[in-house]
Amino acid sequence: MRAELELAVRYYETDQMGIVHHSNYVRYFECGRSDMMKKYGLPIEVIEKEGVMLPIVSVEARYKMPAKMGDVIRIVSKINKVPMAKLEVLSEIYNQDGVLLCTGKVVLGFIDAVTRHPVRCPQNLADIISAHIDE
């Protein structure tokens, strides 16, 4: 399962040198992940309305080159395996010249919205990922 999203780097995401602050890459991962879920017909808001929340368990980022003011970044989001208890989303961020800027992995858990206890991946999400896993 794979999706791409383009975003323009915004002024407030940069420092005085015009370089994107490292913390914004986690936001870019989230933008890509949310967009991917929407494109595959199951936005995170729908999963939450069905009573399952997706808290972040861990975030990894490897910075290669900085994004800069004026760049248009391309966020590539991927899910390579059907989740059971945790969902792993891999991300790659490129600039408009195709230069790899950052790679990352976000792991999300599944919890019941009321009890806050861990639950399995919702079946509708597992089915969508399974149907598109080799894309």
Please report the total strand number as a whole number: 7
Annotated CATH homologous superfamily = Hotdog Thioesterase
Structural class: alpha+beta
Main β sheet profile: 5 strands, antiparallel
- Write down the CATH class: Alpha Beta
Give me the side-by-side strand order of the main sheet: 1-4-5-6-3
Listing every helix as H and every strand as E from the N terminus to the C terminus, the arrangement reads EHHEEEEEEH
Question: What low-confidence regions span 5 or more consecutive residues with pLDDT below 50?
Answer: none
Q: Describe the global form.
A: elongated
Mean pLDDT: 96
Q: Can you describe this structure?
A:
- The radius of gyration is 16 Å and the shape is elongated.
- Helix content is 24%, strand content 33%.
- The chain has 135 residues and is α+β, with helices and mostly antiparallel strands.
- It has three helices and seven strands; from the N terminus they run βααββββββα.
- It has a five-stranded antiparallel beta sheet with strand order 1-4-5-6-3, with helices on one face.
- The longest helix has 16 residues, at 24-39.
- 24% of the residues are buried.
- It has a single domain (2-132), classed as Hotdog Thioesterase (Thiol Ester Dehydrase, Chain A).
